[in-house]
């Protein structure tokens, strides 16, 4: 898609396009009124951890414990949804002033393992998160995190919120907005 966007902007100067390469968005608005409420069993890690903390799921499946990482679980770059919203605002300002096509990595530039994320949610929720290891999923890499330096420099944007904010805001939203699925 990025090549198509780039070609489009080169062939027709009336187009201005920007791509934001999100890393793993988590968290919720600080008001606790806007957050993630997936129906059924979510596909993403944070909602699954939250479901265990809420008692909606018995345990969290953790895929892989033999990665070449300090605790053996995969490491990913998690970004607070409010930082992501601010990246969109910065990108919109840039897009209005700069013709053509551009792309940016939107992440923190830091990674946290699955086990670390579980521990941060346990602290935020004051609940034990039970988990069980399963074999790695095909195609999963050990470590993946953003290099947001281009966004930092050109968009004058940087993530402001840490993993603690991400986990506590996600928990705050979830505990105050539990959907009764019975």
Model description:
The chain has a single domain (2-174), classed as UDP-galactose 4-epimerase, domain 1, CATH 3.90.25. Helix content is 38%, strand content 19%. It has helices at residues 2-11, 45-54, 81-97, 114-125, 149-154, 163-176, and strands at residues 16-22, 24-26, 60-63, 75-76, 78-80, 100-106, 112-113, 131-134, 143-144. The chain is globular. The mean pLDDT is 94.
Helix/strand-derived category reads: alpha/beta
Pick out the low-confidence regions: none
Classify the beta-strand content into a percent band: 15-25%
| CATH homology-level superfamily | UDP-galactose 4-epimerase, domain 1
Order of helices and strands: HEEHEEEHEEHEEHH
Question: Counting H and I runs of at least 4 residues, what is the number of helices?
Answer: 6
Mass-distribution shape:
globular
How many distinct beta strands?
9
- How do the strands line up in the largest sheet? 7-4-9
Q: Given this structure, which CATH class is correct?
A: Alpha Beta
Average pLDDT confidence is 94
Q: How much helicity do the residues have?
A: 25-40%
